[in-house]
Design goal:
Elements (H helix, E strand, L loop, with lengths): L6 E6 L2 H9 L8 E4 L2 E5 L1 H4 L7 E2 H7 L4 E3 L3 H18 L3 E5 L2 E5 L10 H16 L3 E6 L2 H11 L4 E3 L5 H5 L12 H9 L5 H6 L2 H8 L1 H11 L15 E7 L7 H21 L4 E9 L5 E12 L2 H22 L3 E7 L15 H18 L16 E3 L5
Parallel strand pairs: 2-5, 8-9
Antiparallel strand pairs: 1-7, 1-8, 2-3, 3-4, 6-7, 10-13, 10-14, 11-12, 11-13
Helix pairs in contact: 4-5, 10-11, 12-13
Organism: Mumia flava
Catalytic activity: DNA(n) + a 2'-deoxyribonucleoside 5'-triphosphate = DNA(n+1) + diphosphate
Subcellular location: Cytoplasm
């Protein structure tokens, strides 16, 4: 027997662009692009003209000549995100963040105190609009997957409840591209075999799909297509990674500019790691090229660290190894992430015991930036350069 529809997926609408329209009344109702060389967010008025993210800014203006461009304000977006998550956590203690602008909420235990999930979702939407000034869409369903699909279907600024006895009727007519894990390449493989809807996928035995998608993907997608998603709303999960990325715009870019962007990103990530008491082993470099293709390179250290110098040295080595790709294809985005976290107070000392001095310097710089802002102390390589767009992940 199926359970009740008690999971909410709350997703802010065109988050960055909505914050800009909230803060500048002259932008309301008009097509707005957020970004520089690359559009990182677009209002729904801009999306109506066919603008998508990421898209080259020049191309976006060709599609929509009347669009207004604004530079990103990451601190404003982070502040808005924290305010929205305050509303989430005031609604229910069971909040599972997904990103800076979306989360899952479990409200099944609130029926007697507050009301049914649909009523809770409606109240949450009204509070976010009234208290934060932003539109938000909510999907309500029995599973995380269905709730997320429902919220995507209800956008913008909508609410959709999928009752357990209507799941197949809602889900099966939708295109397979709506499923988690189905990108353009996977969709093309499915289309070649006549599988175009989620219902088609549900009717094909997973062992048959495994022949061209692989066993793990085939069984995972079949489970979702048939309503099987046992993942609970998890509270208190610590991030498995910390990262940041910066859009550079279309090049060419001198190696020095990419290196300075990377150094700024590593500074930011290392500071967040120390603030949360995390040390990681694996450093991953992420690159996006002029043709929108991507590449990642990673290296695992012998021991976990939160030291800026060690993380930057590793990231620079990965960048140097990827330089031939950058030379051939151009670079429009650079990012860095750290995974393989360990916590606790035990720290393996370094030889030749130079670590404490570097640790003291890192902590002193962290304190200055916390008190006076992230731009109060900068690397020499960043002086006089555009700080660019640094994308956050989840709200701290």
């Amino acid at each position: 027997m199926k359970g009740r529809a008690t999971i909410l997926h709350a997703d802010l609408d065109s988050f960055f662009a909505s914050v800009e329209q909230r803060d500048d009344p002259s932008l309301r109702g008009r097509p707005v692009l957020v970004g520089g060389g690359v559009v990182v967010a677009a209002s729904y008025e801009a999306k109506a003209h066919g603008i998508r993210t990421p898209m080259n800014h020049r191309r976006a203006l060709e599609i929509c000549p009347g669009a207004l461009t604004v530079r990103p304000r990451m601190e404003a977006y982070s502040e808005a995100s924290r305010a929205v998550f305050d509303v989430f956590r005031d609604t229910t203690p069971l909040v599972d963040p997904v990103s800076i602008d979306e989360a899952f909420l479990e409200v099944g235990g609130l029926a007697r105190l507050v009301g049914e999930p649909a009523a809770i979702a409606a109240t949450l939407r009204a509070r976010v609009r009234a208290e934060v000034g932003l539109p938000i869409t909510v999907g309500v369903a029995r599973t995380k997957f269905l709730a997320k699909v429902a919220s995507a279907h209800a956008k913008p600024d909508g609410l959709l409840v999928v009752p357990p006895d209507s799941e197949d009727a809602f889900l099966h007519p939708l295109p397979v591209e709506r499923m988690w894990g189905v990108g353009p390449a996977t969709a093309e493989r499915l289309h070649q075999r006549g599988i175009t809807t989620i219902g088609d996928l549900a009717r094909v035995p997973p062992r048959a799909v495994a022949a061209y998608l692989g066993r793990h993907s085939a069984y995972h997608l079949h489970a979702l297509a048939t309503g099987q998603d046992p993942r609970p709303v998890e509270v208190g999960r610590r991030r498995r990674s910390m990262g940041a990325q910066r859009a550079l715009g279309r090049g060419p870019h001198a190696p020095e500019r990419i290196d300075s962007a990377l150094a700024g990103l590593v500074d930011r990530v290392a500071r967040r790691m120390r603030r949360s008491g995390r040390r990681g082993r694996t450093v991953t470099l992420r690159l996006r090229f002029d043709d929108f293709s991507r590449a990642t390179r990673s290296h695992t250290l012998g021991r976990p660290t939160d030291r800026t110098a060690a993380l930057l040295s590793t990231a620079r080595a990965l960048l140097a190894a990827a330089q031939p790709l950058i030379d051939a294809r151009g670079c429009t985005l650079v990012g860095v992430a750290v995974t393989g976290f360990e916590g606790g107070d035990a720290i393996q000392l370094e030889l030749p015991f130079a670590g404490p001095d570097q640790a003291a310097l890192d902590l002193a710089l962290d304190d200055v930036r916390e008190r006076f802002g992230s731009a109060a102390v900068q690397r020499g390589t960043l002086v006089g350069r555009d700080p660019g767009l640094v994308m956050p992940t989840l709200p701290d």
